[in-house]
Amino acid sequence: MSLFVRLKAMIQRDRLDRDLDEELRSHLEMRAADNVAAGMAPAEARYAAQRRFGNTMLMKEDTRATHLIGWLDTAARDLRYAVRTLRRSPSFTAVAVLTLALGIGATTAIFSVLDGVVLKPLSYPHPEQLVSVEVTPLALDPSLRGIAPEDYFVFRDQSRTFQDIGIYAETDTDRDVNVTGFAEPERVHALDVTHGVLSVLGISPMFGRIFSPSDDSPDAPPTAILTYGYWQRKFSAEPSAVGKTIIADGMARQIIGVLPRNFRFLDAQDLALILPLQLDHNKTYLGNFSYFGIARLNAGTTLTQASADVARMLPITLDTFPPPPGLSLDLLKNARLAPYLLPLKQDVVGNVGLLLWVLMGGIGMVLLIACANVANLLLVRTEGRQHELALRAALGAGRWRIAALLLWESAVIGLLGSIFGLGLAWAALRFLVALAPAGLPRISDIGINLPVLLFTLAIALLTSLLFGLIPVLKYTAVRAVLTETARTLGQSRERHRARNFLVTAQVALALVLLICSGLMIRTFHALTQVNPGFVRPAELQTFRISIPDSDVPDDADVPRIEQQIQDKLTAIPGVSSGAFSSAVPMDGDSRFDNVFAADRTYAQGAPPPLRHLLFVSPGYFHTLGIPLIAGRDLSWDDTYKRVPVALISENFAIEYWRTPAEALGKRIRINTVDDWRQIVGVVGDVRDDGIHKPARTDVYWPTLLAKFQSHPLRAKRHVTFEVRSPLAGSESFMSQIRQAVWSVDANLPLASVYTLNYFYTKSMARASFTLVMLGIAGAMALLLGAVGLYGVIAYSVSQRTREIGVRIALGAQRRDVMSLVLGEGVSVILIGLAIGLAGSLALTTFLSSLLVGVTATDPLTFAGVAVLLALVALAACYIPARRAMRVDPVVALRYE
Amino acid sequence: MAKPQNDVLQGTLALLVLKSLVRGPMHGYGITLHIQLISKDVLRVEEGSLYPALHRMEQDGWISAEWGTTENNRRARYYQLTARGRKQLAEEEKNWARLSQAVAQVLQFV
């Protein structure tokens, strides 16, 4: 409130009060004068007038309440009074505010994550029209999705539901490009897009232009668009960057535009370059599903309509484009391609929403427990103030006035708690974001913003009302009587009921939370027991390099460079072995294809199952610690002489040939124009998809292949090196590695430098994040619940000191007193546990998709946690019970 | 607190005040006297609720108030009907007539 408004309000209020006083006085004087005229003595007349009028204070207050300013004034006075009362009992206030701040802070923190990740719409214009457009081979593996160039061409030209559609290449490490021409070679993230992608998202450039259809044509001059961050870093934010040339993977490209600062492509991190995806309509073969699509729907079109539209167009693609050499059209037809469209936000957020809702529910319970604690404190406090409240009532304060007074106190506690809670939330968020599983989508959208502040305010008001109403309902319903003496003879059960109810609820809620965290602990334990297929991942240093066509034009020469690097790496002191491969386990870079076996017959057009493909150097299995179960490893001879050989995983061998040994000598290939390749070895299964998912069946090929996937000769140019050394992960070791690589080719930047342990822990990140968060919630619940229980029992003991004293004086054994007090606690605990167990049975089903190796109703967890909670709760009761046992009857009786 | 039997009926206070003011501006005490006099002591306005009611009606714009002096040279706050107040009065009178007629009909029914 500004000074002026306050002054005005003060003047208005004073005038109102003066007017009221004068009006009242003239009324009373006139009545008194009439009374005198009727023959009363002056003093008696004044008294009679006053009596006839009744309670002037009440009337003034009622009148004031009819004016807004009067109402505000009353509220302000109540507020001041509430603050004063609270200041007079600082320890009560501190405990209540702190308890609430914990609850509100935790709730706000989780809500801001939920809001940023799940609730907030994507920051593009009309985000509700945006969808991801992909296709899934229902008959092969419905978990695979992608979109092929032929789909793009047909959907773009023939769709009835899309405003526009664009496709882009995967944003993983494979799309990194080497940028040269600056002082040091650099590997940066690039994104290949058709011209529709940026315009579908509604992006306009800060400088220059975005791609047009002509940039997409295969013979167009190469172009590039810079992101804001890269433009700042490499071009010192010079607008003249537009028109300059940048060399990416050895190709000179003209910079045509710079994107605005707030540009984000879905969830891609650190994008530097956007490059045109130049697809050639005339050279397109069916079935290259390695792209992703996004489209903007016509206004008012539903996802179902769009899916139906795509389903209509899919057969058209099969008729329009030829199948790749060696694959029959029937094969593609039998894969049963189906539309896979999702709202774009859902595509970005994925299934993390469930996890966040679970956490939100858990933290909400902590908040409820905190509220119950504060309500209990308030109950006790209000009970101590019965005398004051009775006095107020006797002086004419209505029930509403007393209720308002109590509620103002709760509101002040609630608001203070929220302010501190916001501070806590701010601190907790930094912790949360640092802890969040790598790949938690939209992490940059998380923050304390307006919706979060509104949420906190709403929570504050709601909670204040929640815990404030309980004492109000209890103590204003029955009009307290002034005559009640301060003597406290034994307490009736009635007076205890509200508090016992609250504590029972706390025990139940705490049990639910603790069982959830117990299940997560068991899950985490189960995950660490799973054999990933490789050994000691912390010792394995990995990094990616990419050998561009411009440096080594002939594919046949690529493995020689790679072998030279591998040799240099293994020569580093302390390195036990080294290798390279197209990907490392769990790095999320997985390739699949149909694999035929020579001794199997496949029905005409029926596709064989998809296998996970990996291209590896000799020594790969040894380096990672993947056991060789039968046969032999690859040799450099296999690679250079292009010997048609392969290795497979044990589970594949067992699936087709019963034993690993039987699989040796069998022949496999990808399609009918490829050469058959002989299986020379069988190795252990690897959980490539993450520790929580079963191992896929793998096929390992050499990195240089003739007549493979319809290509005459192809080498793997994007490879990950793996080096085993106890020094892995240290910066000094990495600099040795860089020297080794650059001694072979000084133009090769190193990218994605991680130990294998990084990918391994990342695959457990979601479980560990959930574990930590639920663990924190569970610990808070346990602590608050124990404090609440302790408080109630301790208070009850202090109120019953006299009664206990009398009992002891009359000969009660101390043990009896102890069991009397403990008994009260035990019944609360038992009822709470029973309710909590029932609640857990109902609620843990929401967790089941996050659990591994343990069921949602695991009896061991349920029983163990219940016993743990019972013990903590008993301890909380034991302390006051012991105090009760030691009550000195003489002292107790003197209390009164 | 037990209330006197002849207290003004809940909800009719506004009607009685508005009607009293038809004759011209009046102060609060005058209104109580007027109602008591006209109703031959049957109706008695409780003063504790009169003033809040007057102020509420003033906030609602049915009546306006200004300070004046009585015939005995005392300062008093005079209340006066506004146009909106007259409309409100007509409305309340109609309601009251309907209500009392209905009550009468019920009472006459044997």
User: What Rg of chain B do the Cα atoms give?
Assistant: 15 Å
| Contiguous runs where pLDDT drops below 50 for at least 5 residues of chain A | 480-491
Overall average pLDDT of chain B: 84
Report the β-strand fraction of chain B as a percent range. Answer: 5-15%
Helix-strand makeup class of chain A: alpha+beta
DSSP helical segment count of chain A: 29
Description of the molecule:
The complex is a heterodimer of chains A (896) and B (110). Chain A is of the alpha+beta class and 896 residues long. Chain A is 53% helix and 15% strand. Chain A is built from 29 helices and 25 strands. In chain A, the strands form 5 sheets. In chain A, strands 14, 15, 16, 17, 18, 19, 20 and 21 form an 8-stranded mixed beta sheet that branches. Chain A has a 6-stranded mixed β-barrel with strand order 3-4-9-6-8-7. In chain A, a hairpin with a 2-residue loop joins strand 22 and strand 23 (711-715). Chain B is an alpha+beta fold and 110 residues long. Chain B is 55% helix and 15% strand. Chain B has helices at 13-21, 28-38, 47-60, 83-108, and strands spanning 26-27, 63-69, 75-81. Chain B has a 3-stranded antiparallel beta sheet. In chain B, strand 2 and strand 3 (75-81) form a beta hairpin. The longest helix of chain B has 26 residues, at 83-108. Chain B is globular, with a radius of gyration of 15 Å. Mean pLDDT of chain B is 84; it is low at 1-6. Classes of the chains: A alpha+beta (896), B alpha+beta (110).
